[in-house]
Amino acid sequence: MLETDPLSEALTTYGGRCGISGGFTAGEGPWAVRFRGGRQLPVIVRGPGWLLADGAAPERLENEGLTLPSGRVPFVLASDPGVEPRDADQLLHSRPGLIVPLGGEQMVGLIRQAGSGPDERLLDALPPVVRVRDAPAVRYPIDRIVHELSRRAPGFAHITEQYAQALMADVLRSVLDSRDLADAGWLRLYADAELWPALALIHDQPAESAHRHGSPLGLLGPFYLPGAPRLEPPNVMPRRPDEKGETLIFRGAVHSTTGEPLPAAEFDMWQADADGNYSGMVPGIPPWNLRGRFGAAADGTFEVTTIQPAPYPVPGDGPIGSVLRELGRHLYRPAHLHLQVTAPDHEVLTIQLYFADGDYLASDAANAVRDGLIVPVELTGDVRIATYDFVLEPLLTE
Ligand SMILES: [Fe+2]
């Protein structure tokens, strides 16, 4: 599997569909098209022409340029600034999904479908007009989309969507390359080399592949330490004699996607304490506190006894904190257990699990909580019992 990065994760997680709703080609004779604005319909264009945005001076678009007016303000695309524009909605929506010829092929405009990926937060961070510097890299997908939409051969919708997705990624990448990142809001998280690890922390949500059937994947995050003590049954996590927090029994089973139990599975588990702190990260906590490795039983089940971890905030004083504040979000992550599960001939599963009765599940600062990662909790006296069945993907063999 390829290593991933935050922008890829965002595009994959949120941008599963990035449709093109239609477009036009233009060139011969004077023409002009007015777009009404509103960010739901960004337009991708290339070719020579004029961009007339409300409140801005007319701007000449050169042949090698590609722009993406993100559509927040009304604008006109024209061969000549003096031409009376036609309305894009009437022009394009009269023939949805089609390429409308305006007389030639010197300029190409593509209208992105309303509400289709990538993450709207990414689009919110774009300036009104994006200039893509590396035009050859995006020229081919545009030409191909126009070709597909014009020809409508079998499979055209699928192919169009794939190229649209790649096109959006290139546009976003171009913005990340060129933009003053101090002013890029949320988007800067995807670009800044120093911020990537921090983003991985708060955005601890992996790309979900449609081809996986195992438990959802996660990232190790910054609080993992290799080499935790090996526990023996009954598995009790290392803890201080006066460790605060309710007793938590975490139990369940581990299976392959084919349904067979995996008794050779090994677990590496780490968690915050009842104050939301990790050993090895915060002074004063004994080494390896609430970190341990243990094995599955002969029937592929497992059980470990620990304490209930607490929610904790992501760092609020750095850039992550300022971005979350910009977005009007709190800094807390819901309480969770980190696990890495291995078994022979199976992919490593790195995962974070949340508690069904926990706080912040719907507003995780890391936006990482998903169905399938929330464990039910049963209360028996003073003891909390959480249950989860892990499913590991078999390794692909040649
Ligand atoms: Fe954590």
* Strand runs, count: 22
Using only CA atoms, what is the Rg? Answer: 26 Å
Major pleated sheet: 5 strands, mixed
Structural class: alpha+beta
Give the amount of beta strand, in percent: 25-35%
CATH topology of the largest domain: Jelly Rolls
Note the run of SSEs as H and E: HEEEEEEEEHEEHHHHEEEEEEHEEEEEE
Describe the global form.
elongated
Integer tally of domains = 2
For the record, give the distance between the C-alpha atoms at the N and C termini, rounded to a whole number: 14 Å
CATH class of the largest domain, anyone?
Mainly Beta
Low-confidence stretches: 201-211
Percent of residues in helices comes to 10-25%
Number of helices: 7
Q: Which ligands occur here?
A: fe (ii) ion
Entry keywords:
single chain, 398 residues, alpha+beta, Jelly Rolls, Protocatechuate 3,4-Dioxygenase, subunit A, 5-stranded mixed β-sheet, 26% strand, elongated, binds fe (ii) ion, oxidoreductase activity, acting on single donors with incorporation of molecular oxygen, incorporation of two atoms of oxygen, Intradiol_dOase_core, DNA binding, Protocatechuate 3,4-dioxygenase beta subunit
Briefly say what this structure is:
GO terms for molecular function: DNA binding; ferric iron binding; oxidoreductase activity, acting on single donors with incorporation of molecular oxygen, incorporation of two atoms of oxygen. The chain has 398 residues and is an alpha+beta fold.
Question: Would you kindly provide a written description of the structure presented here, covering whatever features stand out?
Answer:
The protein is α+β, with helices and mostly antiparallel strands. The protein contains seven helices and 22 strands. The protein has helices spanning 6-14, 88-93, 120-124, 135-151, 156-178, 195-202, 319-326; strands at 20-26, 32-35, 43-46, 49-53, 59-61, 66-67, 75-78, 86-87, 99-102, 107-112, 235-236, 247-256, 266-271, 291-295, 301-307, 312-313, 332-333, 336-342, 349-355, 374-375, 377-380, 383-392. A five-stranded mixed sheet has the order 6-3-10-1-9. Strand 18 and strand 19 (349-355) form a beta hairpin. Helix 4 (135-151) runs antiparallel to helix 5 (156-178). The two termini are 14 Å apart. Bound molecules: fe (ii) ion.
